[in-house]
Amino acid sequence: MNDLFLRALHCCNDSRPPVWLMRQAGRHLASYRALRSRYSFLEMCHEPDLISQVTLLPIKAYQMDAAILFSDILVIPEAMGVGLHFEETKGPLIERPIQTAQDIDQLPSAEEIFKLNYVAQGIRCVKPHLNVPLIGFCGAPFTVASYLIEGKSSRNLKKTKQWLFQDPESFHRLLSKIADWSIAYLHLQIEAGVQAIQIFDSWANYLGFDQFKEFSLAYLQKILLGIQKTHIPSILFCRGSSVFAPQLATLNPAGIGIDWNCQLITMRQQVPASIALQGNLDPDLLYAPLSKIEQEVNRLLDQMTGDKGFIFNLGHGVLPDVSEDAVRTLVNCIKRREPCLATSSF
Ligand code: CP3
Question: Structure pTM?
Fold first, then answer.
């Protein structure tokens, strides 16, 4: 078992940093596109054997140090019954977006979490094939709420922000309901065998400093407290973490995922050494010539040398049109640092 990732997440890694990439199990892989030509995205999310196969693709292609469950943050809205589709070019579309406070109260309670049992089956299916830790995940309540309200990917989250300022009370009820589902969903994943979890707040960067505290942080805290007894380490990732990381650190998560707008080494001065830092190369760097990728990867590795809680990643997900050579160059550059001495203990 390669447990570099868990060691780094516990801030006690004496070997080279572990590497995995957000969206590693996605369209940039030819093996993913081949499977995807035979099934719709949601079919792939629903079928335990396909969940397992896709989760394994980046492990086989690059020997990443951690696997992330193949699924999507929008399976919770789907289980809530709002009607989820993925259009080839438009991304997610929700048939019945939330439009009134009454709609919020009509969303089913988290007792219906059993609708996501297929995810637990996928986890059980993939676990025997893995020699690296498996990361489970969910979306942060603010980001999931934005999809429920906008009904699709949005350029400015206008309806969401209008709702938040015009009727904060019902907006809080929505966030609270999503947080309850998220807690139940993470318990389901943990019982099935994930060894760490990450919460994605992809659109937190749309929030002002105080709004972040009220509408995002409070619910991240609710989720962390809700799964605290499991002792499974959590990573909080948000776009905007170069600004919000000190606020995230007050929740004392195992790790924080940092976007690419700051220097990670500078961020370390604001985040205690007991919290792992994950990140933070610009995802567009993977479009650069391979020699430039190596140069930038080495620069980040040099800056973070000796940091026992550093997990190598991008500042957001791998983009669908980067080359596998680019990703392989990045991974190999990290793996060339020091031999991996770590063996099991977690
Ligand atoms: O990271 C991984 O490889 C594991 C799987 C994973 C997916 N989505 C698969 C996926 C994870 C962790 C996610 C998280 C997710 N989903 C987020 C948060 C992280 C982030 O990137 O900000 C968000 C906002 C979503 C919602 C979502 N899912 C959108 C907006 C889209 C369409 C745009 C896009 O990137 O394709 C998806 C679809 C999606 N989720 C795909 C994959 C592999 C592509 C679907 C396809 O094959 O057409």
Answer: 0.96
